[in-house]
Amino acid sequence: TLACDLNRNGRVDGKAEHVRLLGIDAPESRYSRKNKSHRDQPGATSATRWLESRVLNQTVSLRRDVRPTDKYNRVLAHLY
What we know:
Layout: E1 2-3, E2 18-21, H1 44-55, E3 62-69, E4 75-79
Parallel strand pairs: 2-4
Antiparallel strand pairs: 1-2, 3-4
């Protein structure tokens, strides 16, 4: 999951601008609701750094899924 400025106003406006990347199965971080131990799973930090190194402050394209959002109101999309 990553935060995106989907409406291009220079900020991320709440959960509606959190995108759950489709086709990605990454280790859970301690910030995840699914991860009850409050510790990173092995590889979570590396996965986060890898994604940040490629998309932080970049313009990307998203292709939304058939189901537009998940139960946490995050956009479901493929990232390009």
